[in-house]
Amino acid sequence: MNVLVTSSRMPFALDEIRKLGRADHRVYAADTFYSAPGSHSRYVSDRFEVTPPESSVKRYIAEIDDLVRRWEIDLIVPCFEEVFYLARHRARLPARGRLFAAEFPLLARLHHKASFHALARQLGLRTPATTVVSDVEHLVEALERTPRYVARPAWSRGGIEVLANAGPLAGLIAVDDCEPTPARPWVVQEYVDGIDLCTFSVARHGHLVAHCTYVHPKEIEHTGGIVFESVVDRQALAWARRLVEATGYHGQISLDFRRGRDGLVVLECNPRPTAGVHLMPQWMLIEGILGHGDGVPMVVPAGVRRLYASALVRDALLHPRQLRSDLAYLFSDAADIYAEAGDRLPALFQVLSYGQVLSYRLRHHGPERSMTKLMAAYFEGIRWNGEPL
Fold first, then answer.
1. Based on CB atoms within 10 Å of each CB, which residue in 54, 111, 130, 282 is the most buried?
2. CATH topology of domain 1-101+344-382
């Protein structure tokens, strides 16, 4: 099968490229810049630079259309928020290039933090109290009514633009730095204490077929995991399955939870792959994407561990107090995600791709921390913040 993986800069895209390639599928990779690490895997038959969909949806779709026709692509596997652009314009793509994604209205509903919470509550899933605000005045009022809060844009990702007075991200930005508008509203949520728990699932036409629940025992500046370990949590699996079955979801989907004293709470949904891909064995991922998906869900067992070695090194250099724990993980038996034996070139291009970060920093100045800017730079060009498509 000829498979096109998009947003090949993402580490989970690299992982999927390798797993598809090792399973003897012909894999093509596309992203908006040359140094995207996944594009340089040995398992890529050819790589392509495309227009950032944020810049020109029309041109991006036309270029994907051309790739599908020219290389006889059978399946498109989106790995970040370009999924929204592709799903919205699915009818403009060749019929032979099936898009492994749900329909656009459902994707948008899950991506928007307030509409997702409303859906989750309808399905009986516990969520934090949530208020939607579209201007600074109402933001301040909502904050005053919420003793311990976390607020962020309703369309957001990766711990960017987080206003909080509780938890590890408290005080990072001020209310004056927040600009909710009717076009880009914010959500104010009750802060939930507990342990972060994440899931990644593959669904086919309303059947959850492959699933991983995981924790990240090591984070970098409290914005994202850099060490990942699978766990088994029957309630998280049951909630993910309930969501998939109730919506008829098709494609890759990820959920963020927090487990506290009062039990499990679902925080947000990313209708795309996340780091759980790294923990899912090749056979399970391939069967999930290409299989039939009408039986009992395949579940990753507890104890599988992977890591981002370069992020651990960065953390040790910037935060000497973390040196001991960073080294302990670096010299553990957990495999690095980028520098895989026999396919080490993506690790080099991971470093080269930091040119994107430097370019972003030259063009954007603000109160964000260095890690926040790094993530914002890495997402640039392939985000969707609710704009008309």
1. 111
2. Rossmann fold (3.40.50)
Helix axes 354-363, 370-379, angle to 10 degrees: 110
Q: Which CATH class is domain 129-191?
A: alpha beta
Maximum CA extent, the chain? 57
Full pLDDT tens readout for the chain, 389 residues: 999 999 999 999 999 999 999 999 999 999 999 999 999 999 999 999 999 999 999 999 999 999 999 999 999 999 999 999 999 999 999 988 899 999 999 999 999 999 999 999 999 999 999 999 999 999 999 999 999 999 999 999 977 889 999 998 899 899 999 999 999 999 999 999 999 999 999 999 999 999 999 999 998 877 789 999 999 999 999 999 999 999 999 999 999 999 988 899 999 999 999 999 999 999 999 999 998 766 789 999 999 999 999 999 988 998 899 999 999 999 999 999 999 999 999 999 998 888 777 777 777 665 555 566 677 788 999 999 999 99
Q: Fold for domain 197-339?
A: D-amino Acid Aminotransferase; Chain A, domain 1 (3.30.470)
